[in-house]
Amino acid sequence: MTASSRVPSDWLVTVLHPSLRVVTTPCPAAPDRETMARIDALWTEATRRHPALYNGRVFSATAISADRIEGYWAEYRMVLAQMRAPELFRVLRLRPLAVTGMLRLRSGLVFGQRAATAIYHPGWWQGVPAGSVETREDDVPVDLHEQLVAEIEEELGLNARDVTVGPPLLACEHPGTHIVDIGMVIDTTLDFSAVHAAWAERGNDEYAALKLMSPVEALACPDMLPTTLAMIETLAP
Fold it and tell me: Which of 78, 118, 213, 225 is a Cys-bridge partner for 218, taking CB atoms 3.0 to 4.6 Å apart?
């Protein structure tokens, strides 16, 4: 990012090559008993507050470069524990991968305000949709396009036929949680009223609101997530 960038310097951005490969490597050994006990306690508390949480598999990056990401499938309870207790990163070293869209219409860009009940960054605005790179199985290949299309259908209620998903644009690593967003542009010929109607009728409750903004308006929004700011700045001519 340039000196005039609105992206904080501790949000690490890597511009990605369109032919990026995501490679699955073996899972490391389990943490020690004390760490596992801490993870279990944090997970128990989280599921008490959010009963719908599911301990699936989330892809955790171990190495990131412009054309290659390496990593392994980790239990979501470990990822959540590290989010709740960032000091666990010293032991777990988890960098969970997520996909983040930038839905581009002829009239502007679509942004979602994260619900007040969201586990992470409630109330903030971001490009839509977004979600963890996850699976219910071990050692399956990572398909970023497929992951983002699933989020488009689940969060926005749009059909895959309504959109065109571009290649990976950038990776942005959050400080503290070490979540790594993979930003991808989504184009559609739908207008905002059609997008909003699909979201209101079939989307989930991830967002409290959707809003159409120009790039300039979005960059000026004080509660816009840095990953989204980085995507807008990267796309700027």
Answer: 213
